[in-house]
Amino acid sequence: MSYKVLRFLKNHSIVMRLHNSVLSTNFTKCIATSSQCKIQEEVAKLLALKAQLAPEDAAPQKFTLKTPKGTRDYNPQQMSIRNGVLEKIISVFKRHGAECIDTPVFELKEVLTGKYGEDSKLIYDLKDQGGEILSLRYDLTVPLARYLAMNKINTLKRYHIAKVYRRDNPAMTRGRYREFYQCDFDIAGQYDPMVPDAECLKVVTEILDALQIGTYVLKVNHRRLLDGMFEACGVPADKFRTTCSTVDKLDKSPWEEVRTEMINEKGISPDAADRIGEYVRLNGGVELADKLLQDEKLSKTKAAVEGLQGIKLLLEYCGLFGIQDKILFDLSLARGLDYYTGVIYEAVLTQPIKIGNEEQTVGSIAGGGRYDNLVGMFDSKNKQVPCVGVSIGVERIFSVLEAKLAAGDISVRTSDVDVYVASAQKNFLEERMKICTELWNAGIKTEQSYKKNPKMLNQLQHCEENGIPIAVVLGESELKRGVVKVRNITTRQEDEVPRDQLVEDLKTRIAALSVKEINGSA
Asked: Where does L-histidine bind (predicted)?
């Protein structure tokens, strides 16, 4: 067969295939139209994303090494402050019989949604990993409610210290972050009214007294009273929660700004807003509760009467606990979280903290309240477990103490070492290691240089810089006589101690130093 014939047949075959392809395409075109549109939409999205990326030949951008916005590292001094604060807080929790629990750092998103009102927008959502839609925990209260419901627990007194996450615009200088510690104490169970609530307030006072960061007041209010107040002022029932969230801003914003938000954003009438303004300016003690029970509008509102009676009982119990002088009944306190159902409270410092030559306003350092319906949200039969609790604002407390440290107002030790084993001459590494082992085995916190022949001046300087109070100094002549020198780093006094009595001598010295520290002596 000639070359021309073969070429003709080949071209004819190609034409036929093209013809058939066109017919096939036309036949299926109407069926595939919707799929093609979807594909084209996805391709367009990918092209748009590609356009936002730098060109392939573009120079790589310089990577800035930093922590993510709203997070931080803790250096040894900051960790020492933090651990000291938490140690004091935990001792109070344990004194009141609380048990410790822990929960996952992330929860199913459905667990968290619908529990925080307007603050729900601050929840961090995670990318889908294996089919479960997850979010980082916003607080420790909702995970506790989930834990109680899931494990069918009816009574529990617990504390929980862990990190939580909020997609906020943080003011880190004021102790506000996107990742931060919460420190919670909660009592779950069906008990007589206001007994556990008053104990939560007692716990807060003990913690703040132990930390000694400044004078404070514990503001208290009642969600039922707020609902009754809104009802008496003419606020529609479906706007109680959003109005409450707006009132909650009074600790940061003046009344005029809050009033404007109520009217323009929340749809509250100017008359209702003005009536609310008359109430939220009030604060006092039992006498205020009695006065409000006689109020023409509030006395006709069932919710308000219930709230006021609850406040009176709470204040009575606070008197029995000896903390009535630290409690203030304040109608401006609202706390915006949706899950609160009864008494609410917040601890605030009454005066700015003096740091160096400047004064710093801190704001709220603890808050909480009663949430009787939260556990039931997770129970298939809506079984309720009444709860009340408090969260200590440890990050703000940390920030105050860290600022004091930076200003030189306080000092901290980053190490708990009590004894440093030093040598005045060369070639004493083996003997130093033997003594360190002996002291470690006796439970004495001990350290030494990792250099074989360290300089004596450097060893003593290390003790001074790290607050190590005692040095055991080895010397050739002393060891021949069976003694070592024990040096007080602060006073620089040295005593010779028999080698076989070293452990007991050091324990006595350390105990004496601990007593001086407790008594505030030099």
From this structure: 139-141, 166, 182, 186, 335, 339-340
